[in-house]
Design a protein that fits this description.
Structural class: mainly beta
Shape: globular
Distance between the termini: 37 Å
Radius of gyration: 17 Å
Order of helices and strands: EEEEEEEEEEEEEEEEEE
Strand order of the largest sheet: 3-4-5-6
Helix content: under 10%
Amino acid sequence: MRLIDRTSNATSTFSGQCGSRGYTNGVQGQFYNPNFVAIDHKDNNQLLIADKKNHAMRTLDVNSRALGTFAKSYSLLYRISYIIQEEKSGDFYVTARHAISRITYAQGAVSLISGAIRTRSYIDGTLPISRYSYPRELVFVAPHTLLVADRYNHKLRLVAMDSDQVTTLNVTNSLYKPQTLILTSNTLYVGYQKTILVRKCEYHSTYSFT
């Protein structure tokens, strides 16, 4: 992990070892293909890292630079790629291969929410039967309701956990490998994989985009 000084634009190694992969905790800790980092909303001195090929969510203390492991699961966090935190509970929701898993803040317990880690498909319906194809980023559009960038299905999917339903949103014009999602007020910005294109969609309270 690299640190960029905002004043000088100088870069330096903040954690991990360039050119060396592994799985160790501590100040000299190692990663194996970390690909996402976020700030813990309940502890601003702690970073959360999706350590993709270690199949783990790692923690990094920004003061001591000590690396830790919050949760690790080959079966439920396989190739973890994204982390979002629910503000009220502090629980984490992550995308891992073809599924969405939850990690509780209190115990670090991991459970499958929707999809199937090893099964790539496109199915709407209840959470257990729903299927994705390499989902990437998530955003909360309401309490217990996630919007998912379902990359290789070229769709935006709505995961309503309270009603146990996954649906596909109607979006004017097509999407191609949507990956990045940023929701501000009534505007959704969608970034596409391996392109310089960013799509702007108007968001409506009925969970529709134009």
